[in-house]
Amino acid sequence: VQLVESGGGSVRAGGSLRLSCAASGYTDYGSEYSMGWFRQAPGMEREAVAALIGTTTTRYADSVKGRFTVSKDNAKNTLYLRMNSLKSEDSAMYYCAARLSGSWYLSAAWRYWGQGNQVTVSS
Q1: Which of 9, 23, 6, 7 is nearest to 74 (CA)?
Q2: R_g of the chain, CA atoms, integer Å
Q3: Which letter does DSSP use for residue 71 in this model?
Q4: DSSP for 13-59?
Q5: Torsion angles phi and psi, residue 108, rounded to 5
Q6: pLDDT tens-digit map of 36-86
Q7: Rounded distance, CA 53 to CA 104, Å?
Q8: N or C of the chain: less Cβ packing under 10 Å?
């Protein structure tokens, strides 16, 4: 399974970005596959940002609720993260994850990972 992220970059505080994560290589594609987003800032642990569990259940970290939206295009096997009202503290490497077995906010619960995509928010 491969997860390829795109859409990161640099933006001013208050701006918006949309991250994409294209999945391929599944032997049994299905809309029920959970996918999620994590981020890791320098010197910090990887933290959960958002997840789409099953087909409709969304989960968000408290720090991004109301600003970030996770969605998925099942036909394209692509997960999205729309990030609005970005803050400097949102700056991090963002990782896509797939195949959940456990609690969504634990990185160890996810089996597959993307390579990471840098998001930098300047104040």
Answers
A1: 23
A2: 13
A3: E
A4: TT--EEEEEEEE--SS--TT--EEEEEE-TTS--EEEEEEETTTEEE
A5: -65, -15
A6: 999 999 999 999 999 999 888 999 999 999 999 999 998 888 999 999 999
A7: 8
A8: C
